[in-house]
Amino acid sequence: MYRPTDKYGEPRGISMQHILIRGGLLLVTAVVIGALAGWTRVRAADDVTLPDVSFVAREMGSLGDQLEDTRGEMAVMKLQLERANAVMSNSAKYQIPADLAGDIYDIALSEGLDPALGFQLVKIESGFKRTARSPMAAFGYTQVQVATARFYQPGVTERDLFDRETNLRIGFRFLNDLLDKFDRDPHLALLAYNRGPARVAGILAKGGDPTNGYSHAVLEGYRAPGSGQMTH
Questions:
Q1: Positive or negative: CA dihedral 106, 123, 116, 92
Q2: What pLDDT, in 10s, does the model give residues 77-120?
Q3: Which fold has domain 111-219?
Q4: How much is the pTM?
Q5: In DSSP terms, which residues pair with 144 in a beta bridge?
Q6: Using CA atoms, how far apart are residues 107 and 169, in angstroms rounded to an integer?
């Protein structure tokens, strides 16, 4: 994923965070030094009043809270930047509108599915066509059948499956459930998505191989999170 860098090659978000944290620490140091300087200037006087230690502690605590707030804001900004980069890059990669790319990204994340896998699934299943339908009575972006959809949303209709959010949410939730069922093995989960989980489980139970080429088509060029390697 593209990450903006400064002229030294460091990520911009991280550099800014370091600057803010260092600035805060310098400010805390200045408060302490100022207090100590005040003690030395008045040490010759008989009526010396020591600085209010509780005041200094409160100020330092306040600065610490502000630094924590800043770190939180920087984390949110980093996530927003990552999302914007992902939406733009996938919009260009798959030649689809940015709003569709944004919905695929957001809904996949909300359903616990890697967005990159979500994009690949929609590409293979429907070619990013909302009105796609198959001879097997599967509909929409993720080519979900009504019977499968009703397991997740009772009462859903064929017409409902042409609604973008409804279709993506059900399809991605179904795939994520299959990943759990098949020990997070993307090949087996995708084969179950394509052929049906009972059929794939039955073939495996008999020592057979359910491979039919579908999972390889979806995973071509896909990088699993944290692996750094493309899945084949």
A1: negative
A2: 888 999 999 999 999 999 999 999 999 999 999 999 999 999 99
A3: Lysozyme (1.10.530)
A4: 0.70
A5: 139
A6: 6
